[in-house]
Amino acid sequence: MTDPADRPHYKRVMLKVSGEALMGDQGYGLHPPTVARIAEEVKSVHEMGVEVCMVIGGGNIFRGLQGSAQGMERTTADYMGMLATVMNALAMQAALETVGVFTRVVSAIPMDQICEPYIRRRAVRHLEKKRVCIFTAGTGNPYFTTDTAAALRASEMACDAIFMGKNGVDGVYDKDPRQNADAKRYDKISYDEALSRNLKVMDTSALALARDNNLPIIVFGLDQPGGFRSILAGEGPHTIVER
Ligand code: UDP
């Protein structure tokens, strides 16, 4: 008999991982053991029978805003950022397939030799066939972020929730917990409160999109071993953002 705590509460979920979560302690780029650890987290949830979508950022390699701050034209810098997310997606695909999880990388910008172009119905079919779908190249548009890509694809895929896997923090706090010992974690907060108080859940356009589509956002620590599985079973520290 399955332990009730192991029963999934969700059928299809979106996991957003920032690029920085893949760099370990290196300060830049990809740290293969860290990527492998996150792949194990995803595998353990996939084994619960949950359909998993992923969006991975690119901030460990390149961020458009950094490029434009250094005088580069913003849209070009953003395209470079989107390409960075493709490298991360391929690294995650390789790590997932090493542990026996079938995946598809699906790109908002067609690059046929590397991965599939995004076609909604095809992506849905992959999920039904229990393949993890990694949505890459963000939304395919400059001036957006991978948080927005996560909210957009989660809406299109009819995910039950977006899981924001964070590094070094296990939820949404009233102030920065790294600088304030008395910071308090919210168990639950509304979209509007998170927006009006400018709390660091995800960027504002992404949060507004999640709100408008009534998609719950669960913020949790992806650096806790077994953290993703526990959160899906309704355990462990987290913050849920909903109406
Ligand atoms: N980006 C973009 N459009 C998108 C998604 C991403 O232009 O739809 C670019 C943008 O320059 C961004 C970079 O890709 O800075 C990396 O994405 P993001 O900053 O969201 O990564 P994360 O912070 O999650 O690692």
TrEMBL record:
<feature type="binding site">
    <location>
        <position position="58"/>
    </location>
    <ligand>
        <name>UMP</name>
    </ligand>
</feature>
<keyword id="KW-0963">Cytoplasm</keyword>
<dbReference type="GO" id="GO:0005737">
    <property type="term" value="C:cytoplasm"/>
</dbReference>
<feature type="region of interest" description="Involved in allosteric activation by GTP">
    <location>
        <begin position="24"/>
        <end position="29"/>
    </location>
</feature>
<comment type="subunit">
    <text>Homohexamer.</text>
</comment>
<dbReference type="InterPro" id="IPR001048">
    <property type="entry name" value="Asp/Glu/Uridylate_kinase"/>
</dbReference>
<dbReference type="GO" id="GO:0044210">
    <property type="term" value="P:'de novo' CTP biosynthetic process"/>
</dbReference>
<keyword id="KW-0067">ATP-binding</keyword>
<keyword id="KW-0547">Nucleotide-binding</keyword>
<dbReference type="GO" id="GO:0005524">
    <property type="term" value="F:ATP binding"/>
</dbReference>
<feature type="binding site">
    <location>
        <position position="176"/>
    </location>
    <ligand>
        <name>ATP</name>
    </ligand>
</feature>
<feature type="binding site">
    <location>
        <position position="78"/>
    </location>
    <ligand>
        <name>UMP</name>
    </ligand>
</feature>
<keyword id="KW-0665">Pyrimidine biosynthesis</keyword>
<feature type="binding site">
    <location>
        <position position="63"/>
    </location>
    <ligand>
        <name>ATP</name>
    </ligand>
</feature>
<feature type="binding site">
    <location>
        <position position="59"/>
    </location>
    <ligand>
        <name>ATP</name>
    </ligand>
</feature>
<dbReference type="GO" id="GO:0006225">
    <property type="term" value="P:UDP biosynthetic process"/>
</dbReference>
<keyword id="KW-0418">Kinase</keyword>
<dbReference type="GO" id="GO:0033862">
    <property type="term" value="F:UMP kinase activity"/>
</dbReference>
<comment type="pathway">
    <text>Pyrimidine metabolism; CTP biosynthesis via de novo pathway; UDP from UMP (UMPK route): step 1/1.</text>
</comment>
<feature type="binding site">
    <location>
        <begin position="16"/>
        <end position="19"/>
    </location>
    <ligand>
        <name>ATP</name>
    </ligand>
</feature>
<feature type="domain" description="Aspartate/glutamate/uridylate kinase">
    <location>
        <begin position="11"/>
        <end position="220"/>
    </location>
</feature>
<protein>
    <recommendedName>
        <fullName>Uridylate kinase</fullName>
        <ecNumber>2.7.4.22</ecNumber>
    </recommendedName>
</protein>
<keyword id="KW-0808">Transferase</keyword>
<feature type="binding site">
    <location>
        <begin position="139"/>
        <end position="146"/>
    </location>
    <ligand>
        <name>UMP</name>
    </ligand>
</feature>
<dbReference type="InterPro" id="IPR015963">
    <property type="entry name" value="Uridylate_kinase_bac"/>
</dbReference>
<comment type="similarity">
    <text>Belongs to the UMP kinase family.</text>
</comment>
<keyword id="KW-0021">Allosteric enzyme</keyword>
<feature type="binding site">
    <location>
        <position position="173"/>
    </location>
    <ligand>
        <name>ATP</name>
    </ligand>
</feature>
<feature type="binding site">
    <location>
        <position position="167"/>
    </location>
    <ligand>
        <name>ATP</name>
    </ligand>
</feature>
<dbReference type="InterPro" id="IPR036393">
    <property type="entry name" value="AceGlu_kinase-like_sf"/>
</dbReference>
<comment type="function">
    <text>Catalyzes the reversible phosphorylation of UMP to UDP.</text>
</comment>
<dbReference type="InterPro" id="IPR011817">
    <property type="entry name" value="Uridylate_kinase"/>
</dbReference>
<dbReference type="Pfam" id="PF00696">
    <property type="entry name" value="AA_kinase"/>
</dbReference>
